[in-house]
Amino acid sequence: MGRVRLEDIAAVVGVSKNTVSKALRGAGGVSAEMREKIRETALKMGYRRVRDLDKEVENITVLCRESFFGEPTFWSSILYGIENSARNRNIKLSVTAVDAEDEENLNIPYAINKETTNGIIIVGTLNDGFIKKIKALGIPIVVIDHYSEEIQCDYINSANKKGIYEALKYLYKSGHRKIGFIGNNEWAYSFRERYESFIYYAKKFNIEVDEDYIWLDISLKRTDFIEDTDYFKRKIKYSEKFPSAWICSNDKIALAFIKSLMDLGISVPDKVSVIGFDDIEIARISHPRLTTLNVPKQAMGERAVSQLLFRISNEDKPYEYIELNTSLIVRDSTKGVF
């Protein structure tokens, strides 16, 4: 292909030449989703000016809690998306783990400074004080899978509310009228949002919410989380009052819950239906295979890089809260009760 023109990109995306121009300049009037699509298309087609712009960004630092490196099911996919996007743009990527003591004492990694770091991606929950101190360095930041009203920056999250709505709608249409929820409100922002959405939409569907079956203190510490069943075996008291279906804040919780139910002789899904959230790899091969909400984990990482590049070039533009869509994946851990 010869020199790529704006009209060439416009024809591929299906928009006007003017829209392409505004998107690549960072001008207003173009949605974040469309701007990203245009930018990605331009990069793939070899549009020279986009590649020149990206070359101005040489170094991106990723910050996350140290514990994420031992988490093979969720965070690794997000980190891969970041790494993949940075590599495609020839951007050097540094990943720095933050241990609990440094986070508590607000000790910023010494290697992070404006001279060596063009932008920062924070993955997951770090405390507000720590993030505020990072932001005070004056380096553009994007935060993934977290939100704080106290910190003005760009956020990338999954559509948690929509996911819970889809799960409850599916269960309601399947005949379930008593549904439990398992999570931990002291964990991530996404867990709190999923719980709050559950309460809100349960009322919309006239689904019975029994506080005895709202469990918000789950803690899975073991790496072999499916075998971490002590919590559930203390909590589960199966009777005719027990909910016919449950929604869990993530797949790890759902899979450990299913294991506990089946160890106690409670068949899934014949007696109890279970829905998870995240669609981690093991959810697709577990027995029974897990019904869950798919979170586009790799795409979240890729989108964070694109948003950070936009922010670096457009520091005066309004900050954005970006949600990537979730979708219900129906497998074998749920069935109707008609």
From TrEMBL:
Name by which UniProt lists this protein: ManR
Record organism: Caldanaerobius polysaccharolyticus
Highest taxon of source: Bacteria
Stretches assigned to the HTH lacI-type domain: 4-49
InterPro entries assigned: HTH_LacI (IPR000843), LacI/GalR-like_sensor (IPR046335), Lambda_DNA-bd_dom_sf (IPR010982), Peripla_BP_I (IPR028082)
Keyword Iron-sulfur: no
Keywords, sorted A to Z: DNA-binding, Repressor, Transcription, Transcription regulation
Phylogenetic classification of the source organism: Bacteria, Bacillati, Bacillota, Clostridia, Thermoanaerobacterales
Gene3D superfamilies recorded: 3.40.50.2300, lambda repressor-like DNA-binding domains
Presence of keyword Transcription: yes
GO molecular function term, any single one: transcription cis-regulatory region binding
